[in-house]
Design a protein that fits this description.
With 252 residues, the chain is an alpha+beta fold. Helices cover 54% and strands 17% of the residues.
């Protein structure tokens, strides 16, 4: 396909004369010609995205091709039909997301309402931050916790027992606490219990519990040299302050 044919099709798109499906099919059949004629920079802007709907693709495609036409000093009358369709689609999407958030909030209150007695701030923030990628599993029984203590040859503090009696798994972006993967390890010549990960300073930072006094630390592995950094006096303070703050930051 030569440049004049590409220009003619771009003018049709600019004037709103193509359907979303028609634009997608035409582009698929003429991808190489468009890239050769428009150049890589414009091609990437014009190219339909797999993650976009057909309506969104035709709207963004119209904007991109009209800009390319202007660069060629070709004036066109820009139709607003694609924008109107996109605005309608986006409005429906926003309403669906609002409904989804409401349902997620209800599910948090229904499934994790028991956390209010021990971690009220965490529960309150979860009603705002909880999404489909968040993973929370109910706590372990006292018997299961005692078995884990024997496996690790440790005596858990009452506070640590309370945590795992309410939550056995907590996963969120940059946070992981998992009862099943607890292990002991030396850091700076001191033994800690690894609760999981907390990416406070870098990806993969280990979340550490001081067996002797209950303080909570992070092993900042990207520091030079890597070092243990204190996060909270107690596990409750860590959850109610540090984790809640982390959730708020991601919510924003």
């Amino acid at each position: 396909m030569d440049e004049q044919n590409v220009i003619a099709k771009f003018v049709e798109l600019s004037e709103g004369k193509l359907t979303a499906e028609g634009w997608g099919m035409w582009f698929s059949e003429n991808t190489q010609s468009v890239e050769k004629i428009c150049g890589k920079r414009y091609f990437l802007k014009i190219k339909p995205k797999n993650s976009f709907s057909e309506i969104r693709n035709v709207y963004h495609g119209q904007t991109a091709v009209s800009n390319w036409l202007k660069s060629k000093n070709i004036e066109v009358s820009l139709s607003n039909i694609y924008k109107k369709n996109y605005d309608k689609e986006f409005d429906v999407f926003c309403k669906e997301q609002d409904e989804k958030r409401k349902n997620l909030k209800k599910s948090v209150e229904t499934n994790f309402g028991y956390l209010k007695e021990i971690y009220p701030k965490l529960l309150r923030q979860l009603t705002k931050s909880y999404d489909e990628y968040t993973k929370i599993e109910a706590g372990k029984s006292i018997k299961e916790i005692e078995i884990k203590e024997k496996e690790l040859s440790l005596k858990f503090s009452d506070e640590l027992k309370a945590l795992f009696n309410h939550i056995s798994v907590f996963e969120y972006e940059g946070i992981e606490i998992n009862f099943n993967y607890l292990e002991k390890q030396l850091f700076d010549k001191k033994e800690f219990l690894i609760l999981g990960e907390f990416w406070q300073y870098g990806d993969g930072d280990k979340l550490l519990y001081d067996i002797d006094n209950g303080n909570v630390f992070v092993f900042a592995q990207e520091y030079n040299p890597p070092k243990v950094v204190k996060q909270a006096q107690t596990i409750t303070e860590f959850i109610e302050k540090k984790i809640v703050r982390h959730l708020k930051e991601y919510e924003e």
